[in-house]
Amino acid sequence: MFKNHLKIAVRTLLKNKIYTLVTFLGLTIGVASALLIFRMLEFELSFNQQFTNHDRIVRVVATQESPDEGENFNVCTPIPVMDMLDEGIPQFEQMARIKEFWVTLAQPDPNGGPPLQKFNMGEFETAYFTEPEFFDIFQPLILAGDPVTALTEPNVIILTETWANKFFGSTEKAMGQELIMDNVVPVVVKGVIADFPGQSDFPIPFLSSWETLKSYREHFFFEESIHSCSSNNQVYALLHNPGQLEAVNKELKKISEELYSDRETNRTHILQPLSELHYDERFGHSGRHQISRSRLRILGIVGILILIMACFNFINLATAQATLRAKEVGVRKTLGSSRGQLIAQFMTETGLIVLGAVSLGLVVATLCQPFLQQISYVPEGLTFVGDPKIWVFLILVALLVTLLAGLYPATVLAGFQPIRALKSQALESSRGTVSLRKVLVVLQFVVAQALVIGAIITLLQLQYIRSRELGFSQDLVYTFGINTDSSSIARQDVLKSELLKIPVVEQVSYSSDAPMSGNTWMSNFGYASRPEDEEYGITLRFCDADYQKTFNLELVAGKWFEPSDTIRQGVVNMTLIQKLGIEDPQEAIGQVIRLGGSRRVEITGVSTDFHTHSLRQAHQPILLVPRKIYYWETGVKFRSGSKPAESVAAIKQAFDKVMPEQVFMGRFLDERIKQFYEDENRLAATCRGFGLLAILISCLGLFGLAAHAAQQRVKEIGVRKVLGASTLGIVGLLSKDFLKLVILALVLAAPIAWYFMKNWLDSFAYRIDIEWWVFAITGILALFIAFLTISYQSFRAALANPIESLKSE
Amino acid sequence: MIRTENLSKIYQTDEVETTALNEVNIEIKQGEFVSVMGPSGCGKSTLLNVLGMIDGPSSGSYFFNDEEIGHLPERKRSNIRKYNLGFVFQSFNLIDELSVYENVELPMLYTKVPSAERKKRVEELLEGMNIMHRRNHFPQQLSGGQQQRVAVARAIVNNPKLILADEPTGNLDSSNGDDVMKILAELNASGTTILMVTHSQYCAEFGNRIIRMLDGQVVTENVVKQYL
Predict the structure, then answer these.
(1) In the predicted model, is pLDDT for residue A145 greater than 70?
(2) What integer best gives the mean pLDDT of chain A?
(3) Taking the C-alpha atoms of A169, A170, A175 and A179 in order, what is their torsion angle to the nearest 10 degrees?
């Protein structure tokens, strides 16, 4: 019997080519989309799962109530608090302090010459100072040495396998070798561990000991004050069991109340489970990216919707085709076929199409891998075919889609009464499915249009971000890192003069950060004679006297501060002036800011506002002050007309000459700024990509239905033509029903898309308004595409010779 | 074999009620060849469909082999149908997607006849109907007469006790029609009961008895002389 079902399925599918092609292509696109989205979800959802103790690992983070800015979230734990936690939380089986750090690592020449080898850490790598307990918590695989003991000693480094190979070619050769961090901190390789898993938020190239950090406290800004809170200082712990989260949070609340009772800041420490590290965007982490669970949910829903839309095509066309199959159903029932056998037969047909679509979907998804890299962080190397999870997913999709798409049409077809089916009266009984078909078409276009509206709004917001005046010049500015040890600081002036000798270089400036960097240095402060500190903090930017000219910052009052090595004078921005309630910026000139409660800084100038973070954040009150020891970054402004590649080569040459022990690594500022919107770009590409696919699937369905409608109304068209109807009149007649559905879908899609996009836009301090024309354009676009889709069938029907259609009746 | 008591069939639409069969009482014995005649719309096809269990009666009783089956659910009727009845339609009703061979084989798939037996029976029948050379063709590739011979082969492949034929020659020319009638007469001669609806007096006279209907009722029953 199955053979018979299979045979008839193949022949039926080959006979109804349009129907087969439309459902097949629709399902292929649906399956390919679902596969791509599954790959993204599977990649994101498996982060940090590889650690043996992943369900017991926690991080201590903090929330902070501020009267001015509401609740703030941060990951820092002040050093003295770490000591208290170590003793005061019985639920911690193990606890490890960590401090994130970034250094240049070099292999020194034993003869005193320039380093034999030197490497900067990768853009997304973060090293940790930590304690032996780190190994109990994360259990990295030890390849050589005794890193656990080593971490109790100063001046040690534990390399990962990649870094051991990078320096010494093998794990064994690396052991006992000497390296130097930032040309200041000598360390010995005391162990080699396996690389951390790729799908973890710990892109760690090497570890060093807490003792090393304590031995070089000034170089690494190690401050043992309860009032100093750097996001680099964190605590990880291993609970005895995963259910202790609440109990520890109660303990932490009690400790926080005692610790911070005398301070205005209302900080409370809480635990963050490792399972939330990748998804809770309120707290940063050492990894490259985070993604919220709500974003993943939406992505999953989009994938399911696209797959369901493809199933809708199947249901629509299968039920529309029902009349053509009625005779066969009647004959089979007359000959003794049961309803179950008929359902099995039609399900075989569906299964066959689904099987083909799933196979081709896999091929299409594989071909679309480059697209996946545009919209997600999924690495290039991951294949579809070699992954057993993908196969399980595909089998599940095939079964589900077969059931979802096939069961309803099969039940309708198999439910025909034999006598009515033989008389082709089944058509009447299947008329109820016409409204179902309309509902499904509307739903398809709701999804497609909502995604298109989303794509247009994300594109407009990105356009707005790109075109917004940032308050400084980002063109032709190259930035690169520089060490801040005393030897490097001593050579800063030499480097600057060397750089200025290069003809294409117009300005050179040292600073902690470029104007827009995403980094935050905050301090409490008081203004002029006001006795109390202000309720909000001030953001600091450390920079030299040439910063203004390098980045074209505009002053509205006063002048830039005089060159200095330490903080004596500074420039503030307009946001600070406004927050202080000063009407004329000139009034602030000559006034004093008390930084951190005591350090006095004279205001020499007021600059216009410039963006320090992405446009998600509003302008902050800023103080720009000089401080040589914080100049990690060099900004070089090229003259207009200079050739970028040659200019960068020239400054690298100068850098290598003055700082031979350091690694030259830099980027153009505009490229760095673009990277701020990596997430937004990926979101826009996701909406654009899947929106187009959704429209394509909807149009395929519409095309099939239009073909069916034209076929159904062939006699009516013939009669109308004989009675004098024009071709355009007929086209209008056939098209208007479908176009009405598209318009109805827009009416439904608009508020849904508006709601989601409004929420998304609210995460930007600077954003576009959602204009009515976005919806209008989407509607016009959808109508136009829908009309094009239908018109082929409509024109074909309208241009047919009426005699032919009437004769056949 | 077949007996009806006050068998009625009423079709109801939103506004109109049509009585297709009005308290019909007939009896057909094993081995009979009964022809049903009457003008269009008199209810003869409805009678055939109800007796063939592809439509249910509105009221009255239908006894098949002394068992009342008129009001059985579709599943049970389907079961009786596949083991006992064979159908021949005016419009052949072959499945376009199946070849001649597969069409004839189809009823045996539903009665779960083993594959080797199916092959044997199909080939015998196709030989007998003289269409073996067309076994791999599809219905659209055959003439009307050939299609009806395939349909007859399909109807008898399960050795049914009763063959129901609805205007079997209606779409055929006289020569092909004659061939089909001869086949039916031969089947009857070998013991198969046949109930045939026809407009043609000539065809009707191939049977033993003619039932004439008008407005959903049986008006006369005549016995006819045997041809063969």
Answers:
(1) yes
(2) 87
(3) 30
- Residue numbers in A near B140 (CB within 8 A): none
Q: Please report, in angstroms and rounded to a whole number, the separation of the first and last CA atoms in chain A.
A: 36
Nearest to B109 among A1, A333, A422 (CB): A1
Searching chain A, which residue's CA lies closest to the CA of residue B99? A8
Instruction: Pick B82's closest partner by Cβ from A12, A335, A339.
Output: A335
Residue of A nearest to B138 (CA): A11
Do A422 and B93 lie within an 8 Å CB cutoff? yes
CB-CB contact of A131 with A233 (8 Å): no
Q: Give the residue-averaged pLDDT of B100-126.
A: 91
A377 vs A383: CA distance, rounded Å: 14
Chain segment A620-671, per-residue pLDDT in tens: 899 999 998 889 999 999 998 888 888 899 999 999 999 988 889 899 998 8
pLDDT digits (tens, 9 = 90+) for B114-171: 999 999 999 998 998 888 999 999 998 998 889 988 998 998 898 888 999 988 888 8
Cβ B75–A327 below 8 Å, yes or no? no
Q: What is the pLDDT of residue A806?
A: 62
Question: How is A366-426 classified by DSSP, letter by letter?
Answer: HHTHHHHHHHS---TT--STT-HHHHHHHHHHHHHHHHHHHHHHHHHHHTS-HHHHHTTTH
Q: Which residues pair with B53 in a beta bridge?
A: none
Q: How far apart are CA A691 and CA A309, in angstroms?
A: 12
Q: A19 vs A68, which has greater pLDDT? A: A19
Cβ <8 Å between A11 and B78: no
The enclosing H or E element of B27 equals strand B27-28
Between A88 and A666, name the one with better pLDDT. Answer: A666
Q: Test A341 with B110 for CB contact under 8 angstroms.
A: yes
Distance in Å, alpha carbon of A337 to nearest chain B alpha carbon: 6
Q: Which two tokens stand for residue A472?
A: 């400084």
What is the distance between the alpha carbons of residues A367 and A356, in angstroms, rounded to a whole number? 17
Those residues whose C-beta lies under 8 Å from the C-beta of residue A79, and which sit 6 or more positions away, are: A97, A222, A223, A224, A225, A228, A233
Confidence check on the interface: ipTM exceeds 0.85, yes or no:
no
Report the distance separating Cα A524 and Cα A741, nearest Å.
Answer: 60
User: CA of A285: how far to CAs of A140, A281, A644, A672, B141, in Å?
Assistant: 19, 9, 34, 20, 73
DSSP summary character for residue A617: S
Contact assignment for B49 to A341 by CB distance below 8 Å: no
Which member of B96, B102, B106 has the closest CB to residue A335? Answer: B106
| Closest CB to A331 among B52, B78, B93 | B93
Burial of A336 (0-12, 13-18, 19+ CB in 10 A): buried
Say if the Cβ atoms of B154 and A335 lie within 8 Å: yes
Nearest to A419 among B54, B96, B111 (CB): B54
Q: Do B82 and A418 touch (CB under 8 A)?
A: no
- Angle, alpha carbons A683-A684-A685 (nearest 5°): 90
Looking at CA atoms only, how far is residue A325 from chain B in angstroms? 10
CA distance A292 to A337: 53
Question: B39: burial class by Cβ within 10 Å (0-12, 13-18, 19+)?
Answer: exposed
- How far apart CA A91 and CA B43 sit, in angstroms, is 88
| Minimal C-alpha gap between B93 and chain A (Å) | 7
